[in-house]
Amino acid sequence: MSVNPELQGRSFPSVSPYLVGREKIREFARATSSTSRLSLDPEAARAAGFRDVVAPPTFAIVVQEATLQQLLAAPDAGIDFARVVHGDQRFSYSRPIVAGDELTATLTVASVKSLGGHSMVTAESVMVDGEGEHVVTTTSTLVVRGDE
Amino acid sequence: MSAAVAGLEVGQIVAEQDFTLTRDSLVRYAGASGDFNPIHYRDDVAASVGLPGVLAHGMLTMGTAVQPVVSWLEGDAVPAGGWVSDYQVRFTRPVVVDPAHGAVLTVTAKVGQVDPEANTARVDLTVTFEGATVLGKAQVRVAWA
């Protein structure tokens, strides 16, 4: 089974809005060895001018996950989850994510390439807040290892 | 008012830190992130797809490696209000997490570029495991409003 090249350019329906919770941010911060007061302490975050705790720089991956599941689950995608290795990742923010944000993510497959028996799938998820303003774009390149 | 980045020099090391990832770290990260790919906790599945062992999630390495920069931005060495506006990495080498001893990541964060006009700087990360780099083109863009 190999990755379907016709995925390139495909946009998936927006996933249902993700409500960013304070405890999810703190759980994620602890799981990535963060000692950030802005991520862990709501008082410190408010003192710095934020409504609530501020998400660590890679937190958007949690929201991206639901969009990637759409891609992996697409019946014609041909992506074997156990053969997926993460190649590249990027986060480009317009502003930090703060607890209480409701983020709506939409995934587009930017490219599908073949390289030496492997496939490389680049997926871009654009996330907007409740007002429709851009918050972050996450870009993932997945390497799907071929049968050897 | 001078730019917040005015005191930064290209080549300046702003943070250095070691982190030990254990199998416990991987399970904790799986739960926190929702990434339950079994290659990050099952030796048999990792072996069945030809991997040298259970690997740390690339995103765990990426998320951990940026923390020294976050701590630096929240510390007294730079003006308050700096934040990570862009962060990218390439995963170049797997981090195999030994069930007993874990894996030690060494992170060095160095100023790669300063833009006083935009009040931003690029911080380049070097992340090594067992003496070899595991992230390529690991670049953090920090910005002050």
Task: Report on this structure.
The complex is a heterodimer of chains A (148) and B (145). By secondary structure, chain A is an alpha+beta fold. Chain A has one domain: Roll (Thiol Ester Dehydrase, Chain A), CATH 3.10.129. Chain A has helices spanning 22-31, 37-40, 42-47, 60-73, and strands at residues 18-19, 84-93, 102-115, 118-128, 134-144. A five-stranded antiparallel β-sheet of chain A has the order 1-3-4-5-2, with helices on one face. The longest helix of chain A is centred in the middle third of the chain and has 14 residues, at 60-73. Chain B is of the alpha+beta class. Chain B has one domain (3-22, 56-144): Thiol Ester Dehydrase, Chain A, CATH 3.10.129. In chain B, 23% of the residues lie in helices and 36% in strands. In chain B, strands 1, 2, 3, 4, 5 and 6 form a six-stranded antiparallel β-sheet that branches. Chain B is elongated, with a radius of gyration of 17 Å. The mean pLDDT of chain B is 95. The chains are: A alpha+beta (148), B alpha+beta (145).
Strand and helix map with partners:
The complex is a heterodimer of chains A (148) and B (145).
Chain A: E1 18-19, H1 22-31, H2 37-40, H3 42-47, H4 60-73, E2 84-93, E3 102-115, E4 118-128, E5 134-144
Antiparallel strand pairs in A: 1-3, 2-5, 3-4, 4-5
Chain B: E1 13-21, H1 23-33, H2 43-48, H3 58-65, H4 67-74, E2 83-91, E3 103-115, E4 120-129, E5 132-133, E6 135-143
CATH topology group of chain B: Thiol Ester Dehydrase, Chain A
Q: Can you identify the CATH superfamily of chain A?
A: Hotdog Thioesterase
Count of individual beta strands of chain B: 6
What class do helices, strands and sheet pairing of chain B give? alpha+beta
- Number of structural units classed as domains of chain A: 1
- Strand order within the widest beta sheet of chain A: 1-3-4-5-2
Termini separation of chain B (Å)? Answer: 12 Å
- Helices of chain B, by number, come to 4
The level of helicity of chain B is 10-25%
Number of helices of chain A: 4
CATH class of chain B: Alpha Beta
Helix and strand sequence of chain A: EHHHHEEEE
Strand count, sense and closure of the main sheet of chain B? 6 strands, antiparallel
Give the ordered list of helices and strands of chain B: EHHHHEEEEE
CATH architecture title of chain B? Roll
Mean pLDDT of chain B: 95
Family (chain A): Belongs to the UPF0336 family.
InterPro entries (chain A): FAS1-like_DH_region (IPR039569), HadA-like (IPR016709), HotDog_dom_sf (IPR029069), UPF0336/Enoyl-CoA_hydratase (IPR050965)
Protein name (chain A): UPF0336 protein GCM10025867_39600
Organism (chain A): Frondihabitans sucicola
